[in-house]
Amino acid sequence: MKSVRQEQAPPDITAIVLEVAWQVAEKSGAKSIFANVEALVDRKFPERLHKKVQLVSVVRDEKGYAAAQKITKKILQVPNVKLGRMGQVKLVVLMGLSSNLVQKEDKIVYLPQNPNDGSLDGLMVIDVAKEFNLITSPEVIEIDKSVRRDIFEAVLSLALELANEGREGKPVGAIFVVGDHEKVLEISRQITINPFRGYEESERNILDPRLRDTIKEFAVLDGAFVISSEGTLITSGRHLSAALGGEDFPQGLGSRHVAAAGISDVTNAVAITISESTGTVRVFRGGKILVELEKAAPTGRPSKPRPA
């Protein structure tokens, strides 16, 4: 009598990665494990985890936040955009530093998601102190000296959304200059009508979710957005006149990035750019790039290098 061969169920890669993560965190001395909340729902975790290592749920929306509250007290909210694995790492470290869930001397374990199906398919141990310069710049910790952290995070989130979505199916390039707006206005000039003029400050704050679509519409026009350190939209369509005199600026970047670097060099503002050709989002302060966030390549394939 012939036996019927039963097909084995495919391995649960996410479960395997999670189990290994606890062991790696304990043995490496990592303070935290960061994982996207979608991969954590309905999972069981070792009781020893919360005694030695803190689990941080990474969430992208209100639904994820509600789910995370049932799993752990530590929650990191990031923009709801698709990024490549290295982009995910940089964003988690950047937002973690901003929210004080990560300190510069920490060692953390991060479990990146597959950009296509959302599964956990890797494990990274990040010694923030040793790899800081590869991920971001030390000046990122001091951003709150120029701009409120919630304002910075709101503008960064908006820039990442624009970089990923574009507008009407077309890629968008843009500059957001945040903080020290009076000096920024002194060394720049208006090239289009200011659409925010005449409105009360309470009606043009970057934290107002009702303004996001309006800002995205104006992002396709030439010129930079200027935003106060408190989040008030001062104007858009601004030509930035400052030139960068330093020699350390990376070669090969276009005029938009040079303008952003220049304005951040001669003011206390933070500038955030979107590359129209690659969708890379860059943050500038003091004339330097603090961090570069590359969006995920289509269908998970590596994208070919293109000029910014």
Overview of the molecule:
The chain is built from 9 helices and 12 strands. The protein has 308 residues and is α/β, with parallel strands linked by helices. It has 2 domains: 13-136, Pyruvate kinase, C-terminal domain (Pyruvate Kinase, Chain: A, domain 1), CATH 3.40.1380; 142-300, YojJ-like (1. It has a 7-stranded mixed sheet, with helices on both faces. A hairpin with a 6-residue loop joins β10 and β11 (281-285). The longest helix is centred in the middle third of the chain and has 17 residues, at 149-165. The protein starts with 12 loop residues before the first helix and ends in a 15-residue tail after the last strand.
Could you give a short description of this structure?
This protein has helices spanning 13-28, 49-52, 62-69, 85-98, 128-135, 149-165, 181-186, 212-218, 255-266, and strands at 32-36, 54-59, 74-77, 107-111, 124-127, 174-178, 188-190, 224-227, 233-240, 270-274, 281-285, 288-293. It is α/β, with parallel strands linked by helices and 308 residues long.
- What is the number of E strands? 12
Topology as H/E string?
HEHEHEHEEHHEHEHEEHEEE
Would you tell me the overall average pLDDT?
82
Q: Roughly how many Å is the radius of gyration?
A: 21 Å
In CATH's first tier, which class of the largest domain applies? Alpha Beta
CATH superfamily of the largest domain: DNA integrity scanning protein, DisA, N-terminal domain
Structural class: alpha/beta
Main sheet record = 7 strands, mixed
Distance between the amino and carboxyl termini: 68 Å
Query: Which consecutive residue ranges, at least 5 long each, have pLDDT under 50?
Result: 300-308
The number of helical runs is 9
Give the strand line-up of the largest sheet. 7-9-8-6-10-11-12
Helix content: 25-40%
Residues in β-strands, percent: 15-25%
CA-based shape: elongated
CATH topology of the largest domain: YojJ-like (1
Instruction: List the domain count as a whole number.
Output: 2
- Per CATH, the architecture of the largest domain is 3-Layer(aba) Sandwich
